[in-house]
Write the C-alpha cells for this entry.
Amino acid sequence: MPNDNEVPLFSLKDFKLKTPQGKLLKDGVSFEVWPGDVVYLKGENGKGKTTLAKEIFSQLKKQKVNVEFLPQLSSLNSSLPFTLAEVVALSEAQLKELPSQLISLEILQRPWNHASGGERKKALLVRSLLKKPDILILDEPFNHLDAETIIEIQSLIWRLVATHELKAIVLASHQEIGASPEFGAINLKEVRL
C-alpha cells in the first residue's frame, strides 16, 4: 500500500474511452498504476483494449515517462528482407546484453520471413527491454503463440516487475493470463473493458 505522500506512476479517473471515430466504448474508466503493478486490460476483441493502451502510452509520453509500447503483430505474413536482429536494430553491444533466456543470438540471425510468430515477438520484446523503460505497455502479446512461449514470456515479465527492473506493465489481452512462480511478488490489477 502506498504512503500518503506517494503518487501513482499514472492514473485515469472517469475516462471516456472512445474509438478514433468518437464512438463511446466505455464511460468512467478509472485506475492507478503504482510501482510493482501489472495492469491487465481485459476484454473481448473490439472492446477498446488497444485504444486504451495507446491512450495510456500517449499520456505517459506527454509526461516524459520512460515508456515502451509493443503493439500487436497484426500480420505474421509480412515479408521483410532482414534478419530479426536487423529488424529490431540491435547493436553489437546490445546483442551482448540480451536476456539469453528469452532469445538466442542464433535465432536473431534468422530472416524475418523464416522466423515464427513467437520468435518475432520475442525479438521485438527484447528491443523494448533493452531500452530499459520504467513502464512497458504490451498489446496482445500472446496472440499467435504456443502455450510454452506464453508461459516463458509471462514468467519473464512477471520477474522484471517483481525485481523492479520494470516499475510497471500495462498488458492488454483478451486471453486469460496465467500464474507463474513470480506471480505473488507483483500486484495484478484487472481493468475489464
